[in-house]
Structures are given as structure tokens and as C-alpha cells.
Amino acid sequence: MTGWSEDPAVASALLPGRPDDYIGTVVMDGGLLAPLEERAGILSLLGDNVPLPRAEARDNHSDERHLEYWLSGLRDARAVLRELGLTTSAQSVLGLEQTGCGRVTRHLARDLPGGRLFFGAPSPAQVHVLNAIFEGRVQAFRTGAFPHLPFANASFDGVFAIETLPNTLEACAWLLEFKRVLKPDGKVYATLLDAEAWSTLSEDGAGSPSTEASAVGHRFPRETRHDVRAEPAGSPFLAGSQFLSVWAKIMRIVLIEPRAKQGEIGVVLCA
After folding, report:
1. Within a 10 A sphere around the Cβ of 171, how many other Cβ atoms?
2. What's the CA gap between 76 and 70, in Å, rounded?
3. CA–CA separation, 51 vs 16, rounded Å?
4. 106-124: per-residue pLDDT in tens?
5. 162 pairs with which residues across the strands?
6. Measured distance CA(105)–CA(149) in Å, rounded
7. Cα–Cα distance between 120 and 101 in angstroms, integer?
8. Which of 28, 124, 215, 246 has a 20 to 30 Å separation from 37 between CA atoms?
9. Neighbour count for residue 26 (Cβ, 10 Å)
10. Burial class (CB in 10 A: 0-12, 13-18, 19+), 30
11. Interior CA angle at 17 toward 12 and 20, to 5°?
12. For the domain 3-270, what is the CATH code?
């Protein structure tokens, strides 16, 4: 029995058992099931002994579809590893995620055994739970009301922000912080709403791009990866996301690509 299992504040935020105990729960996004056809994916699920957060503790991300929650984290973790060029060597990685529950980070903690992982969560309770269940493999810290990271300059090899960057101006402020804490040639991988999703939100009167991307639906076509340097002026791919032109003044945009989760794009930036 682990020490945190006797901590009521931690235990109450977690589902009983292990992630593979929920293999029978519904997965609505069939595209997430592909890893379960791979030996590596199956072994990852069977070997994961970190409990899943309850639906209410993760802002009802995936609701009661607990296997889908786990699989979506695996999908995004693979994207982080690929786009940031991370290996099993002793690299330092900083992550921010939408729910602050380590949906993606749990997989990185397994796949980067020699890495130093830091994870930002918005509430002290989430920080407490994460530090307990990851048992030193991840160091969680609290993110404040303003874009600020409690780390020295040039501390990290890579930074990722999954479904978490808010409105344009604040997102730019976060990007400045990411750039500050990155080592030379370090990269940022961030996910954003795509052009049509932004347009849809505007038409619906939602107004703010911080609206959850999953509400947009399946709109972005599955195309090939996009090198932003090859995009012609006025490309509709960037329409509605003019803030990217501001980002390009802060960091060099290396790549823009459609994500497996439609309605979003992934952006890779270099310090």
C-alpha cells in the first residue's frame, strides 16, 4: 500500500484500482484505440500503476469514459515526444495541460525515465495530488493568476502546453515565459484551435478562444503536415489565427500541423 492511499485528500480525487481496470469503459473516439492493437500500447496500459483521477477532479474531461481519458493522454504524449524530439536521456521538460491532472504527463513520466519533469497545475489541491501519486517522478507546482514560471532562465529542453493557452494576449505572455525558461534551441509544442474553429466560436457568440476545443466538433480536414515557411501570404490555414503572426515575433515557428483531435492545430516553436 502506498503512503498517499491513506491521505484522504489524495484518495478522494482518484478512481479505485489501476487504469487497466477501466478497459471496458466506453471510447467514443475510435481513433484513440489504435495503440491497443500495438504490443507497446498494451504493455503501457498494463504497466501503468498510477490511478486515474475521478471525472469531477479532471473537470469532467471524457466524463466517465476513463479508458478514453487514458488513451487521449497517450496520443498527446506521443505528439509531445515527437515534436520536441525528446528521448530517454536526462532532459528537463515543463508541461501545462487543460485540466491540471497530468493526463499527458503520466505517459511522459513512463517514457522519459531519465528525464526531469515539471508540471504546472492551477490549484494547491491538484499540486498535492500530483506530487503524491507520481512519487517524485514529476514535480508539480502551482501556476498563478498571471503568466509566470518559478524557474531560472534556460532551465528546460522542452515545454508543452496542451489545450491550455487562453486568449491571445495572455497566450503571448505565456509564450514569453516559455522562451525565457527554454535552453538555447529548446522547443515549445502548443495546441490551439484551428482557423475554422475560431470562426465558429465567433459566429456562435462565444467570443473567447479559451472555449473548450472539444465543443467545436470535427471540422479540421486531415491533411499533411504544414511547414509555415511554405505557406503563401493570406493562406486560409492561418485565417482567424492572426495571433500567430505575433507569436512569430517572439519565437520562430517551425511547424504548424493538423492534430489527431480535429478542430485543433499543433504548433512547434523554437527559442
Report:
1. 20
2. 10
3. 7
4. 999 999 988 899 999 988 9
5. 97
6. 18
7. 9
8. 215
9. 11
10. exposed
11. 135
12. 3.40.50.150
